[in-house]
Structure formats: C-alpha cells, structure tokens
Specification:
Layout (H helix, E strand, L loop, with lengths): L6 H6 L5 H12 L10 H13 L10 E9 L15 H9 L4 H9 L3 E7 L9 H4 L18 H20 L4 E9 L2 H12 L3 H4 L9 H18 L6 H8 L2 H15 L4 E3 L2 H13 L7 E3 L6 H10 L15 H19 L5 H38 L1
Parallel strand pairs: 1-2, 1-3, 3-4, 4-5
Helix pairs in contact: 2-3, 3-15, 5-15, 7-11, 7-12, 8-10, 8-13, 8-14, 12-13, 13-14
C-alpha cells in the first residue's frame, strides 16, 4: 500500500496570482504599443508576470532543460523505429553535445540536465549525477505486465518531486521539460487514451523516428491491449502510472506537480511530457495554470491531451525529434514576451489623458447612437400602431 497521498497536491497548488495579472494587464494598457498589436506575446507576458508574482516581470535569466530518460519494455514488441534498449545511445549523444537539443541549448546558453530513471544499461554507464535517481533497469511490457511495482512508481514520483525542489532551490526560473526514451510514446498514448476515454487508434502516432504502417498497426494493438489493463485502475493515478506508465513518466508527473507547488513555470515538449501533464492535472486540477505547451509535435495523442487541458501550443514547426527540442525552440518567444512586458515605455501623461478622453468621447458617442436608435425604433413602432 502506498504511503503517498496525492490529494495533498490539490491543497498545495494555487493558481498564479490573479491580482498581479490584472496589474500586468493595466500596465499593458498604458504602453505606447496598442493592446493586441503584439498578439500572443501580450498574453505570455501577463501569464509570466502572474506566475512570478511581479509587475513588471523580470527577464527569464536562469532557464534549464530537464530531460527524464528511460527504456520501455513495450519496445521489444517492435512498436518503435529504434531498437529496444536504445535510449542509452540517445542519452550519450545529449551528454556529449551531439544531439539537436544539445546544439540548441549551447546556442541559447541554457544548461541541460539528464535524469536516468529507467535506462536499460548498467548503472555505472553514466556519471553519478545522471543516475542517482534511477528506480530500475527498463520498464515492464505494458501490454501484458505492469511497467512498475507500486513501490517503484512511488519512488519515481518522489524522485520527480525532489528534482523539482532541487531546480527551484538552485534558482532555475523556468524549465523546458522533455524526455529521452525508446518506446515512450506508447505508454504516453495509453495514458492519454485512458484519461480522455478514447480508442487506441485515435492516439496512436508515428513517433519521433517515423514508423511504417505495419509497425503502426503493432503499436496500435499494443496500446489497445495496455488500455484494457489501464481502465480498471483509472481512479488511482499512482496505480495507473505503475500499470501502464514507466519510471520516467512517473517522475515527470511528480516533477510537474512539484513545479506547480513551487511556482516554477514549465514549457512542455512532446506527447510524453503532455501525457504526464494530463495525469498531473487529474491529481491537481490547478496545476496546468503553471505550464505552457511549447509546440505541436504532430502526435495525435498530444493534440488530444492539450485540448483536454485547454493548452494552446506556442509553435507549430513539425518538430518530432523529442528530447525537449520543440519546447526549447519556444523559449526565445517566452523570453521576448518577458522583455517586452518589462521594457516597453509607457505613454506620456498628456498622451495618456488624451487617449482616455478619446475613449470617453467614443463611449459617449456610442451611447448617443444607441439612444437615437432606440428612439427611432420607438417612433416607428408608434407610427405603425397608428396605421
């Protein structure tokens, strides 16, 4: 029996400060750039101000990419274009600076942290700071067995909470969250289908390295079989993660929840991070207010989950590689929004007064027109009744 009470997160997580958001909106009204002229950047700046509880909002100065890594036993069924157990090589490329996320992070001057939760390799394959939270070697084949024991699922979720605390305590002010896995999109699709009440075919995508039609059919069948195992435990999110998730997914769920507790904004990457966000939303309904959807990956499951959480992707560039790349591409947009919200000049007092007077005059004119229209309608009605 688990000693972890997930209901505590509901009590601990508050929404971003509504009063601060209203102050940010009022400040935007006083800017020299007309409201709405910057499109969604205005909204992003206000969201960030509310999340950080300050007007004007400070620049995003210490972002970090956090990647949770794991191998999934379901990959042995041939549901991925990559070989089962192949996440070790992907992690090595990230650490050596040879992966897409490493290249982008280097250019953007953003540190990358990789957390091994369940790689299918010896624990000494990577440095201690990468492997110290590892729960097990690989995850179970979710179509026929649990991904984790309940104890392992709890340990992984607690590890995610601890990592969020480490990031918040170290001064990280925004997280780009992604995964490095082989087979990870399959349990992600199962979680989304189970929580959204949809069939396997609705959420089965082609993965980061696109699969052919035969592989897609195997993947769809695996998701269908895993769904049968997921539905009986839908009421208990920890059991759900143990049955059809994985150590990396359980850790990401705990990480997202604790980031919301610590008021640490997160940019979500692809379908795996989004699936964990959906589980976290089921645990604490206010948690999604602390997250942004970085991009649309093209995975049908991601689109379904984002719609359920009412999160709109910032970018749509067709990036499918995973590893936090799409979310990292959205980081400059968030930084730009913060800079504009903080640094654009306000109108001169005389100009502001003139704008306010013009607004009042427009409102008065509109009111006069409404009165005239009402009187004309009344006169027409009276004339018609006399006829």
């Amino acid at each position: 029996m688990s000693s972890l009470n997930l209901d505590d997160f509901t009590d601990l997580i508050e929404r971003p400060d509504g009063g601060v958001r209203r102050d940010a909106e009022a400040l935007r009204e006083r800017r020299t750039v007309p409201p709405g002229a910057l499109g969604r950047l205005d909204e992003l700046g206000e969201w960030l101000a509310a999340a950080r509880g300050e007007v004007p909002v400070r620049p995003v100065e210490r972002p970090r990419v956090v990647l949770f890594a794991g191998d999934h036993g379901i990959a042995r069924l041939g549901v991925s274009a990559r070989p089962a157990g192949g996440a070790e090589r992907l992690v090595r490329a990230v650490l050596e600076g040879a992966s897409p996320v490493s290249v982008l992070a280097r250019r953007l001057e953003v540190p990358v942290r990789v957390v091994d939760m369940a790689l299918d390799c010896p624990p000494d394959a990577f440095p201690p700071d990468v492997v110290r939270h590892r729960v097990r070697r690989g995850s179970g084949r979710i179509d026929i067995e649990d991904a984790l024991t309940l104890e392992e699922a709890e340990a992984a979720l607690r590890a995610g909470v601890a990592i969020a605390d480490e990031e918040a305590d170290s001064g990280t002010d925004l997280v780009v969250l992604g995964d490095v896995s082989v087979g990870g999109t399959t349990p992600a699709a199962v979680l989304i289908a189970a929580l959204c009440g949809t069939d396997a075919s609705v959420v089965t995508g082609r993965g980061g390295l696109a699969i052919d039609d035969l592989t897609w059919m195997r993947k769809c069948a695996a998701i269908r079989d895993a769904l049968r195992r997921a539905r009986p435990v839908l009421g208990d999110q920890l059991q759900l993660l143990a049955a059809v998730g994985g150590a990396d997914l359980a850790a990401m769920t705990g990480f997202l929840l604790q980031c919301a507790v610590r008021r640490l904004p997160v940019i979500l990457d692809g379908v795996v991070a989004t699936a964990c966000a959906l589980v976290a939303q089921r645990i604490a309904f206010r948690a999604p207010d602390w997250w942004l959807a970085g991009h649309a990956s093209g995975e049908p499951g991601q689109a379904k989950a984002l719609d359920r959480m009412a999160l709109e992707p910032l970018l749509e560039q067709g990036v499918k590689v995973g590893e936090g790349v799409g979310a990292l591409l959205a980081l400059p947009l968030v930084r730009a929004a913060a800079a504009l919200a903080a640094e654009l000049p306000e109108k001169e007092p005389a100009e502001a007064e003139k704008a306010a007077e013009a607004e009042k005059a427009a409102e008065a004119e509109k009111a006069a027109e409404a009165v005239e229209t009402a009187e004309a309608a009344k006169a027409a009605e009276k004339e018609q009744s006399m006829d």
